[in-house]
Amino acid sequence: MKKARRIGCSVALVLGFAAMARASAGFIALEGSDATALHHDSSYTPNLFSYLHGASALPVLVYNPAGVIDLSGIDGGVAVVNTTTFPTGLSAYSAIYIESPGGCCTADNTVLNGFGAAVLAFIAAGGNLAIENYVGGSYDGVVPGGAGSDGTNTAGLGASGGGPGCTDNETVTALGFSKGFSQPPVDGCWEHQGYKNSYWNPLGYISLIAADPAYFGASSDTAPLLGGSGLLALGGSLGSTSVPEPTSILLLGSSVAVLGITLRKKLKKA
Fold first, then answer.
1. Contacts of 36 (CB under 8 A, 6+ apart)
2. CA dihedral 51, 52, 57, 59 (to 10 degrees)
3. Half-sphere exposure for 84 (CA within 13 Å, toward CB)
């Protein structure tokens, strides 16, 4: 009876790790740009929403408390649902896009405060999140590392880290191209914020679109494609949430090995 119970526990352990490997968390994208809300850029905006919903057939939720920016016609292949009220049933969406309260140029995402628990649960379940005009702050605990992002790590409009308030020097990185982004055209004012990679990269954020190096003066952040970023992403598998993360695969493999050794010993004793 004890032997059967131990074997049952081992099997349950493996099944638990297998479920962990299947359920990869979603990602968070910090967008230092008004290209979506202000310009409705014809190439970048569909790229962004396609990246957000990934392979999911569920619509992207656009939470726009000001109610002045309509993105329903730019869906990246999946319908966009605009709302001025934060919904309760987030499982009905593939991703959430948080707009600044004014829709343009306000660089204020504190509208997320009060919904942190629901958004974190949504991300943990595989949903993706993008925050427009991100200028720092954890916003109810949603952005890992955001609380420590003061003016030395986030720059541009609405931030205290200096740099231009507007630039068109965005450049899609090789990783960005691999995720479906194409080089945006000159809009007159594409980016508003930049993020210091020497701070954000060690936290796990990866740059998909690099910003104007003028946002930061440190030599470590002014090399080509490293001068901050117009779009950083963290977590999940960066758009492929069905792919198990390496740590989950390792845990699953270790559990299978332990189960195999346990069963072999039981058979020898029998």
1. 44, 45, 48, 71, 97, 132
2. -140
3. 9
> What residue has token string 């899609």?
172
> 7 is written with which tokens?
């074997």
Give, in degrees to the nearest 5, the angle at Cα 246 between 257 and 248: 55
- The continuous run of DSSP H or E covering 37 comes out as none
| Amino acid (one-letter) located at 155 | A
Q: In this structure, are residues 225 and 192 in contact, taking their beta carbons and an 8 Å threshold?
A: no
For 211, phi then psi, to 5°, come to -100, 180
For residue 101, the tally of other CB atoms under 10 A from its CB is 16
Q: Which residues have CB under 8 Å from 179's CB, separation 6+?
A: 51, 208, 238, 239
Taking each helix axis as running N to C, give the angle between helix 2-22 and helix 246-269, from 0 to 180 degrees, rounded to the nearest 10.
160
Residue written as tokens 């638990």? 16
Which residue ranges of the chain lie beneath pLDDT 70? 1-23, 103, 161, 217-227, 237-270
Are the beta carbons of 50 and 85 closer than 8 angstroms?
A: no
Beta bridge partners of 67: none
Q: What is the pTM of this model?
A: 0.78
Token pair belonging to 59: 């619509």
